[in-house]
Please model this.
Amino acid sequence: MRPSSQALKPKSSHDTEREFGGTLGAICIPIFLPVTVLFLICVSRSPEASVLQWPPSLPSTDQLWDPLAVVLLLGWIALHTLLYLMPLGKVSEGLALRDGKRLKYPINGFHGLCISGVLLMLLLGLGAPLGYLFELMLPLAACAIAVSFLFSVYLYIRSFWAPSHALALGGNTGNPLYDFFIGRELNPRIGNFDLKYFCELRPGLIGWVVINLGMLMKEAELRGSPSLGMILVNSFQLLYVGDALWNEEAVLTTMDIVHDGFGFMLVFGDLAWVPFTYGLQAAFLVVHPQALSALGATAIIGLNGIGYYIFRKSNSQKNQFRRDPTHPSVARLETIATATGKRLLVSGWWGLVRHPNYLGDLLMALAWSLPCGFSHLLPYFYVIYFTVLLIHREARDERQCRAKYGVAWDTYCRRVPYRIFPYIY
Ligand code: NDP
Model:
């Protein structure tokens, strides 16, 4: 079916609902979040590790600059560019774009993780001081922030050469600050190399587990062996990253790929925010060792296991249903019809709450913080931030689903009244 010419056009500025606080958010967030990254790293290594300390710990300029950090960061991005281009794994098609075309994506992120792991083991075998990443964390983060800004400027400029149907709905308001922040072009590519898809799950996400491993090595240097808490944090977060890359194809149907333009918000999130704030627990444990009993560790492993089970099962159920609703694992689930022809699940995991995958994710987030004990707030930063992010994301998704499915969505909300936490929210 040929798409109508209206469907090809991005929304005009006046009917676009601005997100993240509109222009004010687009000015404040790109200042506030990079400062927050540097602040949190400083706090995690200060003896007090207090986020409330006044004046706040902020790095001096010479703490932010190290040419080795620039070489390592650019080398890391170059390595993952090469791994992306290697003819490994299958090639999948994304959802249909507004012009009816489907883009092709290499599903080889898990190969990238494994090859990076082998290379790291080789380097460790050769005596590479991976624990030095602890000292390099501030300059690495500063470099990732600078790369995010420069890359976002490039994306914004190049978007003016993109055809109008390649722009994101909502990213083309005409307000340069907002469009730079939210992203104008939906799927910017250089040839077949998809810049957004590449950044979503590779350099930042895999970088996160490498930084964690660096923290573990640093702890081993300082105390002879890594602590139980450090081993748990590393293992849980490696499982999370490994799972995301093993199921890489699922990212092709997410809001980030399908709906959001590629601008500062996603670039910074992928390249700076995720690798340098998601693993703060490991950085904290280097300077603030915690005793963890076998019973405590077992309970935390159990919590992470339950969270992971809910997260994986619910995501897989929806993905399977969207790919093939007649598959035996989902064919018997109760659904409601929508005017678009797509159906909505109202039983199984998606009949429990409207975002069971967020519930599982949040339980895991809590399990990542608990090995750090209860003496400080900093290791709980991730779970607090992530709760806010997922509540906000749920509201965005809800708005989009209501626009897409209209009255069928309202029926679903009546049938499944809770959003994330059963009987609570
Ligand atoms: P979801 O996987 O939750 O997908 C939402 C979409 O699912 C909706 O837009 C709708 O799309 C479809 N849907 C909603 N309800 C139903 C239903 N009842 N039946 C069938 N389809 C339904 O999107 P996210 O991208 O937000 O999350 C994916 C995963 O990534 C989650 O596990 C989340 O926790 C995780 N995540 C992690 C982040 C991190 O930083 N660690 C950040 C963001 C997400 P349609 O109908 O068009 O198919």
User: Anything to note?
Assistant: Residues 254-255, 311, 315, 318, 321-322, 342, 344-345, 350, 355, 357-358, 361, 393, 397, 400-401, 412 surround NDP (CB under 6 Å).
